[in-house]
Amino acid sequence: MTVMEAAVKNSVPGIAAECGGACACATCHVYVDEAWREKTGSPEQMEEDMLDFAFDVRSESRLSCQIKVTDALDGLVVRIPEKQI
Amino acid sequence: MSETVIKTDAIIIGAGPVGLFAVFELGLVDIKAHVIDILDRPGGQCTELYPEKPIYDIPGLTIVTGQELTDKLMAQIKPFDAEFHFNQRVETLERLDRGFGVTTDAGTKIEGKIVVIAAGGGSFTPKRPPLPGIENYEGTSVFYSVRKMENFRGRDVLIVGGGDSALDWTLNLQPVAKSITLLHRRAEFRAAPASVQKMLTLVESGDVSFKLGQVTELHGEDGQLRSVTVKGSDGTTFEQPTEIMMPFFGLTMKLGPVADWGIQLNENLIPVDTEKFETSEKGIFAIGDINTYPGKLKLILSGFHETALMAQQAHKYVYPDKKLIFQYTTSSSSLQKKLGVK
User: Fold this and answer.
1) CA nearest B183 in A: which residue?
2) CB A52 to CB B49 under 8 A?
């Protein structure tokens, strides 16, 4: 399960996930809370490239389809860009 | 624009996997098709979004990529000689005495006895940056594509993005425009390395200006852009004067003109029955991701099933006097003849 899948399953607005998790559309863009950045890690090359198609990209930007939910991420806080909703 | 009207049996809207397989199923029952797609090649989402990604749930194919599946479907439908109209979006659909007429944004006119909407998530359109008031500048100062290079002659152009479209238009418009500024959020580009190299050479010679940052505000009046506010990579902002902005942030799917064709919709999907996959309008079918019915799953394999049943009903409209006899491709010599294997 990825953060994107969890969001879609729970109808969280702002996570369109148009490509269904293929890291191909940047419509599941989130900001990872500062406290969690180390645990979620940084984007790989493909994700960094795809973030070019997102808006208001920041250093804490990730595509939520590329964050796999693990026990270590229990309590994870991510925020959705305001203009994405 | 040509005034010639193409006449055919079936007009298929969408060249994704389901639209392509519709050519096959219709072909088996002697229905000729023309296929229209907004993209420049077949495959729809499969080739646009995930050409290299493996798909695991196509029956009989343990693993296949979006591109491979598209190539295989194109080979499979070859005997039926469908005609493709790429880079075009169907704008209007009208009812004729016997059948339908469609017109695309490129002026292509096609008349068919039936229409098959296999438009998936809708038509791919450029993503609009969420900048307040951007819609007031679209078509006058903000452009997502270049129809005529001449319109850019002698103008100050700001190109935003780091992919192939952004780089291609930086290179193509540079000799024409008065000035070209390329703005991107980082110094790495996902565009083809050769284009990046050419761009960097132009930056070195002073013919292209490259800046790091993201646009946050637009300034101008009456649809005429004067400048944009850019947030630099260091967090500080600056004003970038420009007459034209071209944002390249990829494509998104929009239902588009389908909504205006008088077909009943349900939250941007087209309700169909599960016997014929026909819409609220007789003779207009909807198959694949764009339709909805109880239990619908947006799977390619479901779309394939839908094409076969749709073709049964389509035959009744195209050949009202002929009875359709159910046949298998394994044993029917007439089907094998159509497939060119006998």
Assistant:
1) A52
2) no
Mutate which of A8, A25, A44, A50 to test chain B, going by most B C-beta atoms within 10 A? Answer: A25
The complex scores an ipTM of: 0.92
Domain spans, chain A: 3-84
List CB contacts (< 8 A) between B214 and chain A.
55-57
Contact B249 A57 (CB under 8 A): no
Answer yes or no: do B38 and B67 share one domain.
Answer: yes
Which residues on A lie below 8 Å from B50 (Cβ)?
19, 22, 24
Residue B228 and residue B140 in one domain: yes
The verdict on B105 and B210 lying in the same domain is no
> Does residue B135 have a pLDDT over 70?
yes
The pLDDT assigned to A20 comes to: 87
Same domain, B233 and B266: no
**Coil, helix or strand for A25?**
coil
- Same domain for B50 and B93? yes
- pLDDT per residue as tens digits for the range B1-44: 457 999 999 999 999 999 999 999 999 999 999 999 999 999 99
Give the chain B residue whose CA is nearest to the CA of A50. Answer: B190
Report pLDDT for B81. Answer: 97
Q: What are the backbone angles phi and psi of residue B225, rounded to the nearest 5°?
A: -75, 140
B260 and B118 fall within a common domain: yes
pTM above 0.95, yes or no: no
Residues B32 and B111 in one domain: yes
Of residues A25, A49, A56, nearest to B49 (C-beta): A25
Helix or strand run (H / E) with residue B336 = helix B333-338
In which domain, by residue range, is B199 found?
134-249
Give me the number of domains chain B comprises.
2
Mean pLDDT of chain B: 95
β-bridge mates for residue B114, sequence order: B10
Rounded distance between C-alpha atoms, residue B245 and residue A63, angstroms? 26
* Fold held by A3-84: Ubiquitin-like (UB roll) (3.10.20)
> How many residue pairs from chains A and B have C-beta atoms closer than 8 A?
47
Contacts of B250 in chain A (CB under 8 A): 25-26, 53
What is the DSSP code string of B254-300?
E-GGGGGSS---BTTBEE--TTT-B-SSTTEEE-GGGEE-TT----H
Indicate the pLDDT class of residue B342, thresholds 50, 70 and 90.
confident
Residue-wise pLDDT tens digits, B229-240 = 999 988 899 999
